[in-house]
Amino acid sequence: MTLIRDIMTDEVETCSLKDNIYEVAVKMKEWDVGVIPIVEGKRLVGIITDRDIVLRCIAEKNPPSSKVEEIMSENLFTVTPDTTTQEAARLMAKEQIRRLPVVENGELVGIVALGDLAVRDLTDNQAKTALSEISEPDDEQSIH
């Protein structure tokens, strides 16, 4: 049984509540990532995705100087390093999310992405299932 600790990325670039959206976007570009966790100290308090920036900042005509807390998602789904990849894949599919922060004792210790599951032979079917369910539009979210 593969655990999240075996496949997670433990070098995660973060921002704080003092940062603004421009600074988050610059870090995304520098690190070539689509998500930046927001922390207070080491405690995870939110997350910002590239999609959040587009929908909650640019499309709403908010300036890049907007504070991260105005844009970030606070209702977070997380896993621990001891979560199995099967449990993580089920959570990703159920909640239609592609990345999960990894938290231990309230502190951010890593992140796991759907791609991390996909590159593992043991979890390839789990990743395919999760991706198909994540990519399936919700009735509420579908565009008509």
From TrEMBL:
Keywords: CBS domain. The keyword Nucleus does not apply. PROSITE patterns: CBS. SUPFAM superfamilies: CBS-domain pair (SSF54631). It comes from the Bacteria. SMART domains: CBS. InterPro entries: CBS_dom, CBS_dom_sf, Diverse_CBS-Domain. Residues 8-65, 72-128 form the CBS domain. Pfam families: CBS (PF00571). This is CBS domain-containing protein. It comes from Siminovitchia thermophila.
